[in-house]
Amino acid sequence: MTDQMQAWQVTAPGPISETLKFTDEATKPSAASLRGDQILIQVQAAAINPADYKTNQMGSGFLSRALISYPKTLGMDLAGIVAAVGPGASDIKEGDHVFARIDPLKQPGALSQYIISNRDGYAKVADCTNLSAAACLGTAGLTAYQSIYPYVDAGNSIFINGGSGGVGTLAIQIGKILGCHVTASCSTSKVNLCRDMGADEIIDYKTADVVETLQKSGRQYSLVLDYVGKSPQNFYITASTVLTKKGVLILGSPTISTIINATLWPGCLGGSKHKVVTYLTKNSHDDMVQLSKWLDDGSLRVAIEKSYDFSQVMAAYEHLKKGSTAGKIVIQIP
Given CA atoms 293, 294, 298, 299 in this order, what sign does their dihedral have? Predict the structure, then answer.
């Protein structure tokens, strides 16, 4: 068996339009190298995220060079078939179907034919589950679940700023599964998508002012999730007007200035008057198992805007960088 495989790798820090290259000579991980409960996955599909290319441009590339070894295979999210298991793996076997999330700073990425995953980064899915859909659950699913589950009870109201993207479409559904009333914002062309995902109320930011509409509704929210980051402007301030007394604001895509202003300044000096959580996705086997159960039983559906062949990875990222995707973008791995 050959010790090489196909992969898409960045060769240096900087824009992926200049650094991302296809290779058929990437080192293939071996079953013999597995330790503990690690597994070797034959990748069938990968889902891409903005963080894939942003990680390669941290600190204008200087921070990326300090944290990443090059060449580096790109991508965090995948699904596939278990090709081998480590000596400590007891609840999974060769041939099982799984989805996985890779730590972008510690491991080779998902855009390759084979990859090793630690137990905290994978979960089984049913053999009949669509692997393209499963591949989308890693970063987007964990982000949605971990930014909602700890902060709500059944009957609470939540607002999702950015309901039509990969995270937002899953967050709408998870909010409903957990028994919440869900309001989401999106553009005119995505209203039907958010409605199909289960949103109780939808604010079309193309035709209405989001903050004004929230305030006029009179509804108080236990949780406000900002997955957009730049619009509405200074949302970390105005969100306080619609949060309950103990409500929480989650900043899912904040700028550095927003983090500083929202978390370090008191409310009387321009900061948020409520608890603010700057969210960072964490791998969790238990959380991934829960997402898998919901996907397998049909409670959770994945909106896929477009699927690309492995040879079209650069085109897929150009599509993603345009913004305003309706759900996820998937790569098929040969």
Answer: positive
What's the sign of the alpha-carbon dihedral 22, 27, 30, 34?
negative
pLDDT in tens, the chain (334 residues): 579 999 999 999 889 999 999 999 999 999 999 999 999 999 999 999 999 998 887 655 667 777 788 999 999 999 999 999 999 999 999 999 999 999 888 889 999 999 999 999 999 999 999 999 999 999 999 999 999 999 999 999 999 999 999 999 999 999 999 999 999 999 999 999 999 999 999 999 999 999 999 999 999 999 999 999 777 877 878 899 999 999 999 987 655 655 556 565 555 545 566 688 777 899 999 999 999 999 999 999 999 999 999 999 999 999 999 988 899 999 999 9
Identify the CATH assignment for 140-278 out of 2.120.10.30, 3.90.25.10, 3.40.50.720, 3.90.1700.10. Answer: 3.40.50.720
**Beta strands of the chain (E only): which ranges?**
4-10, 20-27, 39-47, 72-73, 77-85, 97-101, 114-117, 122-125, 157-161, 181-186, 201-204, 221-226, 243-251, 275-278, 304-309, 328-332
Q: What is the CATH number of domain 4-136+302-332?
A: 3.90.180.10
Between helices 139-146 and 285-297, what is the axis angle to 10°? Answer: 100
Q: What is the dihedral of CA 179, 183, 188, 191, to 10 degrees?
A: 10
Position 197: which residue type?
M
Task: Name the residue ranges covered by the structural domains of the chain.
Answer: 4-136+302-332, 140-278
Q: Exposed (0-12), middle (13-18) or buried (19+): which is 182, by Cβ within 10 Å?
A: buried
Q: How far is CA 296 from CA 47, 130, 136, 194, 292, in A?
A: 18, 9, 14, 21, 6
* pTM > 0.85: yes or no: yes
